[in-house]
């Protein structure tokens, strides 16, 4: 194999900012430890709402320049996390943000949700076969919380992982590669509840209201969690990366809000469910390393 670092982690996300909210601490930790960390973002997040009033003119119903602006925010966030390899699926702007489920933007020609999975998959297969990740992180089948682009990112990631390993599939995209472990982003309900209790004790921080547990993606019973990554040492990096997504995220200490202005806790420990591959921890115990049990 080419000169690749021994450990290689691929993350597939829907919009700029999802990576920092879900995996910011994990990404910073593995980047700092010398692993190859590759982020693939499927859209530019063109349909996001804009929080800072002085940037409201970028919005899709005004100048429609939010996408290119968020490319810059993502680059700044990756600098905070120490991640140098971040790409857009098919190149920047190939697939467009589809907006929330049910809006007319879902049916636009370039909308990611309106794209045949088979048309998007080859771009990711090519990346998988060139960087040969042992670990893939993406969303669960519901996209964590039902956003169409998150559901589609899940479908494309899972299908690409399957086809990248298939000998007969598109040999022009590189030699077959099988990913050893696939994880979905998760959050144990008990941890989410504790986080909201902290936020209530802080009087809702600087925000006019508090979000609901159902607003947090990937919440499940703790028994479904296979892996927890303690990113405490990288909490400040994660917070700085979230702050870099200034059109989308408002940070106040250990709390943040999206464009609905409802406070949520920031979590330094990030949780995962192993869905493909062998667990690297004894039965009944959680892994503390995504690469546990993987031969370098
Ligand atoms: Zn998103």
UniProtKB/TrEMBL annotation:
Top enzyme category: hydrolase
Keywords from the UniProt entry: Hydrolase, Metal-binding, Zinc
InterPro entries documented for this protein: GlcNAc_PI_deacetylase-related (IPR003737), LmbE-like_dom_sf (IPR024078), Mycothiol_biosynthesis_MshB (IPR017810)
SUPFAM superfamilies, A to Z: LmbE-like
MF terms in GO: N-acetylglucosaminylinositol deacetylase activity
Names of required cofactors: Zn(2+)
Cofactor note: Binds 1 zinc ion per subunit.
Catalysed reaction, written as an equation: 1D-myo-inositol 2-acetamido-2-deoxy-alpha-D-glucopyranoside + H2O = 1D-myo-inositol 2-amino-2-deoxy-alpha-D-glucopyranoside + acetate
Residue numbers binding Zn(2+): 15, 18, 150
Entry EC no(s): 3.5.1.103
Function: Catalyzes the deacetylation of 1D-myo-inositol 2-acetamido-2-deoxy-alpha-D-glucopyranoside (GlcNAc-Ins) in the mycothiol biosynthesis pathway.
Entry similarity comment: Belongs to the MshB deacetylase family.
This protein's name: 1D-myo-inositol 2-acetamido-2-deoxy-alpha-D-glucopyranoside deacetylase
Gene name tied to this protein: mshB
């Amino acid at each position: 194999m080419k000169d690749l670092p021994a450990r290689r982690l691929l993350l597939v996300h829907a919009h700029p900012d999802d990576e920092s909210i879900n995996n910011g601490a994990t990404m910073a930790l593995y980047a700092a430890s010398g692993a190859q960390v590759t982020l693939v973002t499927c859209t530019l997040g063109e349909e996001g709402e804009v929080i800072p009033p002085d940037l409201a003119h970028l919005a899709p119903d005004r100048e429609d320049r939010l996408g290119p602006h968020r490319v810059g925010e993502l680059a700044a966030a990756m600098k905070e996390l120490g991640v140098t390899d971040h790409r857009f699926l098919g190149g920047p702007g190939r697939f467009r943000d589809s907006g929330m489920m049910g809006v007319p933007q879902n049916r636009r020609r370039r909308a990611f949700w309106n794209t045949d999975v088979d048309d998007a998959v080859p771009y990711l297969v090519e990346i998988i076969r060139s960087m040969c990740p042992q670990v893939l992180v993406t969303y669960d089948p519901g996209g964590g919380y039902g956003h169409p682009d998150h559901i589609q990112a899940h479908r494309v990631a899972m299908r690409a992982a399957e086809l990248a390993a298939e000998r007969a599939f598109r040999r022009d995209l590189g030699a077959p590669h099988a990913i050893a472990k696939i994880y979905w982003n998760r959050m144990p309900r008990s941890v989410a509840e504790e986080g909201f209790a902290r936020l209530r004790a802080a009087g809702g921080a600087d925000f006019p209201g508090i979000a609901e547990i159902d607003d947090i993606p990937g919440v499940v019973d703790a028994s479904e969690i296979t892996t927890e990554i303690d990113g405490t040492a990288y909490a400040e990096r994660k917070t700085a990366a979230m702050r870099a997504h200034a059109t989308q995220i408002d940070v106040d200490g250990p709390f943040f809000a999206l464009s609905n202005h409802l406070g949520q806790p920031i979590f330094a420990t990030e949780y995962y469910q192993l869905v493909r591959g062998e667990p690297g921890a004894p039965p009944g115990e959680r892994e503390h390393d995504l690469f546990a049990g993987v031969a370098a």
